[in-house]
Each structure stands twice: as C-alpha cells, then as structure tokens.
Design a protein that fits this description.
Elements (H helix, E strand, L loop, with lengths): L6 E6 L6 H12 L4 E6 L4 H12 L3 E6 L1 H11 L9 E6 L5 H5 L6 H10 L2 E9 L3 E3 L2 E5 H8 L2 H7 L2 H9 L7 E7 L2 E7 L1 E5 L21 E6 L5 H6 L10 E6 L1 E14 L2 E20 L9
Parallel strand pairs: 1-2, 1-3, 3-4
Antiparallel strand pairs: 5-6, 5-14, 7-10, 7-13, 8-9, 8-13, 10-11, 11-12, 13-14
Helix pairs in contact: 1-5, 2-3, 6-8
Bound molecules: adenosine-5'-triphosphate and magnesium ion (MG).
The site of magnesium ion (MG) has 5 residues, from helix 3.
C-alpha cells in the first residue's frame, strides 16, 4: 500500500463543534490519509501549530476557518524556510469565506477536505504589510473597514456573510471619506477615499468584488480606490458595474505606499491593523496552495 501524504488541519475553535467536519475527518482517516487536527483558542495558536507542522514534515497545512484563519496560517507559512514549507489547503469554516468562495473551493466539507489533501499545488503570491503583517486575499480601508471590523460577533455568526452587508447599511449615516496619498511605481494619487481595496484576491466583506480583476499568481496587487461618497449607491448595489466611473481609481502594482494624516484602520483579510502609513509589497509565488483546477483567481 502506498503511504499517503500527511496533513495537519488547524481548525478555528469557533467551528470545532461542526459535526460535518468530524465526519469528513473520520472518512479521510479511514481512507488512509494521516490527518492531524489542532484547534485554536486565540490569535497566535495557528502560528505555533504551523511550526509544529513543519517539525512533523507534513505535506499540507489545512486552514479550517474563514479568511482570518487562512491569513494567520499563510503568514506563518511564509516565515518557514522554503525547503520545509508545507502546502496550504483550505477548508471553508468561517462566516464570509471570501477567499475560499472566490477560489471556487467546494463548499461541502468532504469535497473541500479531499481537495485540501490531494489537490494540485499552485504557486500563489502573498502581500506583506509594513514588513511583518500579511494578507492573502485583500486589504480594505474606509467603508469596508467599518463594515468588517465593527460587525458584532454574534450578528456575524447568526447571519453569515450577509451580516457585513446589513450592518453596513445600518451604519451608512456614519460613513465618511478618508483623505490619503497613495504612491507606487509609476503611480501617484491623493484625495478623499471612501473605500480602498488592495486585492491579491477579488472579494471581501461577504461577496463584495472590490478588486474584480485581481489574480493570485500575477505578481501584482490590484488597487481600487472608490473616491467619492456619490458612489455609495453603486457600492451597495454592484461593485463591478463601475468600470467607467471617474471616481473609481484602478491600478495593478507590485508595491504601494499609503499615507494618511490621521490614524486609519486597514483590514487584512478581516483582521484590523491601525496606522498612518502602510507599505504593501507583493511577495510573488511565496506559497503553494492546493486549489481547484479551474480556480478563477489563477491566471
Ligand atoms: N476559539 C476561538 N474562538 C473565537 N475566536 C477565535 C478562536 N480561535 C481563533 N479565533 C480568532 O478568530 C479570528 C479569525 O476568524 P475567521 O476569519 O477565520 O472567521 P470569520 O471571521 O468568522 O470568517 P470570515 O473572515 O471568512 O468572515 C482571528 O482573529 C482569531 O484570533
Ligand atoms: Mg474573519
């Protein structure tokens, strides 16, 4: 009998009680796949488990959670020496699961686990922020930030991805554009931004396609600045129908620097980071990830 490659699954504690997950893990173990399972309690746990995975020499570390869980695991994987770096696999168990959905990862846990263990690895980029933070999917500032970082946890688990949207609507009266300056190679913009999306992937905030042309393996980040409050109705209806809108600034850049006169919050895959200056750089082909053959984010 062939020895199946081992994987370590890191489950966000919020989803540890999932019965479908337990059954999917059992089935794969019975089929002969060695699968270690670890559960997180708080920020920092995932990184320790990734280090353990490297010591165990597993071939794959599977992120069982939402975008924030994938973020923490991807950020820990890039710190490992390339020769001992396991592949990333994705098991969507979060609220919005924007990255998994836009990658066309199957929503059924059994199929998703099979792909996470056996899928073909593809090289993908990851973005580094201020030298020590990362995002794999998207960084958002402005309106989107308020939506994600202030969506109460209980509302989030009750309503799923839709909660971002509903909560955003409730808070519309409090929205304000933020003034900032953005520089990159051959790119310079200053003005009032309502929403800034910097995409390695395409969608955030529960299905909002802020960066509709982004690819995760092109060595570039798609910057989209939604620069006017007049855009609010568009933002709330369809973010993709505004290609010709002069208030939408778009660029594809290998790095960019954003500076604001006062402190702003960026969400990195839904996890907040405060500051006045953000240097964001793409790290091309920094990770390998097991993705569906027809993943729309692969160019
Ligand atoms: N046992 C736990 N209970 C509550 N929060 C946890 C636990 N373990 C980790 N966390 C925190 O959960 C956050 C990540 O959650 P994650 O993004 O995976 O789910 P989500 O926000 O529900 O999904 P999505 O981002 O796709 O909408 C991190 O901030 C992490 O520190
Ligand atoms: Mg999250």
């Amino acid at each position: 009998m062939l020895t199946a490659p081992a994987a370590l699954l890191i489950v966000n504690g919020k989803s540890a009680g999932d019965e479908e997950l337990r059954m999917a893990v059992e089935r794969h173990r019975e089929a002969g796949y060695p699968l270690h399972v670890r559960v997180t309690w708080e920020h920092g746990d995932a990184q320790r488990y990734v280090e353990e995975a490297a010591r165990l020499r597993v071939e794959t570390v599977i992120a069982g959670g939402g975008d924030g869980t994938i973020n923490e695991i991807a950020g820990a994987l890039v710190l490992l020496p390339a020769e001992h770096r396991p592949c990333l696999g994705i098991l969507p168990l979060g609220t919005a699961n924007d990255f998994a959905l836009s990658c066309a990862i199957p929503q059924g846990l059994d199929k998703a686990l099979a792909l996470a263990i056996n899928g073909k690895p593809a090289d993908i980029d990851i973005a580094q922020v201020n030298h020590d933070r990362y995002f794999i999917n998207m960084a958002t500032g402005g309106f989107g930030t308020r939506i994600t970082s202030e969506t109460p946890a209980k509302l989030k688990s009750a309503l799923g991805g839709a909660s971002y949207f509903i909560h955003g609507l409730l808070r519309m009266d409090t929205l304000k554009a933020d003034s900032c300056e953005i520089k990159g190679p051959g790119f310079n913009w200053a003005g009032e931004a309502l929403v800034i999306g910097i995409g390695n992937g395409r969608q955030a905030g529960g299905g909002q396609a802020l960066c509709p042309d982004a690819l995760i393996n092109d060595g570039l980040l798609q910057l989209r600045v939604y620069a006017s409050e007049a855009l609010l109705p568009i933002l709330l209806n369809s973010l993709t129908s505004d290609e010709q809108n002069p208030h939408v600034i778009s660029a594809s850049l290998p790095w960019l620097e954003i500076e604001a006169p006062h402190e702003v919050t960026f969400n990195l895959d839904g996890e907040p980071l405060k500051g006045k200056k953000f240097l964001i750089t793409v790290l091309p082909a920094a990770l390998t990830c097991r993705l569906p053959p027809l993943c729309p984010l692969l160019g």
